[in-house]
Amino acid sequence: MTTLPARPRVICHMGTSIDGRIVVQGWPEPVAATLRREYEAVHACFDADGWICGRVTMEAFAGGTRTAAEVARERHGPAREDFVASGAFESFAFAIDPRGRLRWGSNDIDGDHVVAVLCEQVSDDYLASLRDRGVSYLLAGAPEIDLPLALAKIGARFGVRTLMLEGGGGINGSMLRAGLVDEVSLLVAPVADGRVGTPALFDMEVGSAAPRGLVLDAVERRDGGLVWLRYRSETHAA
């Protein structure tokens, strides 16, 4: 069995209200606009090789979603190979999409090459459609995504060494629970959200959550009253 190299360093980069909510719709527009601007500026300073999100976040970037009937055409058989599209790519957008629900119309998001991270039972037809559109894909786990394997493949297949985790609370929580978050970069906006049920920075199912200690690295005041907090995982503290 081929040994994969070490996984990339994972930085969870997010913007939240002071009570940890991540949905900006309904916030005062000047605050939301400042957060969006500062978020992109901070993202750029990490000089990462790519970013990763879950399916729900990526729906806004894909061309659409597949029907339930299309998704149900799962395959159970011999393992298949990952696919790396031809071309020279400098940065990547990784979409965690276990059952292949996203219908990609392009293999590019603002200059970042799209890579689908899928479970092994997705249909041959779906994989063929990704290849036709030049979308790369990685097969990692069944019936759920094997996150450590996916990250190891991201490093091995695409040479990614620094990866920004910028998803919703579900994928962020899954990565945290698996011990795969090395750093947290958090922009806290001067907003008290308070809406019950609004997604938070890290969301995990009841009974699966294991609180993780973090070590504060830096605090910086940014424009518009935002505060940038940087933490390291306790297991990756200097």
Shape descriptor: globular
Known CATH architecture of the largest domain: 3-Layer(aba) Sandwich
Largest sheet: 10 strands, mixed
Return the CATH class of the largest domain: Alpha Beta
Overall pLDDT, averaged? 90
What does this structure look like?
This protein folds into 2 domains: 1-49 and 161-238, Dihydrofolate Reductase, subunit A (3-Layer(aba) Sandwich); 52-158, no CATH class. Helix content is 23%, strand content 25%. It contains 6 helices and 12 strands. The strands form 2 sheets. Strands 1, 2, 4, 6, 7, 8, 9, 10, 11 and 12 form a 10-stranded mixed beta sheet that branches. Strand 11 (214-221) and strand 12 (227-233) form a beta hairpin. The mean pLDDT is 90.
For this entry, give a set of tags.
single chain; 238 residues; alpha/beta; Dihydrofolate Reductase, subunit A; 2 domains; two-stranded antiparallel sheet; 6 helices; 25% strand
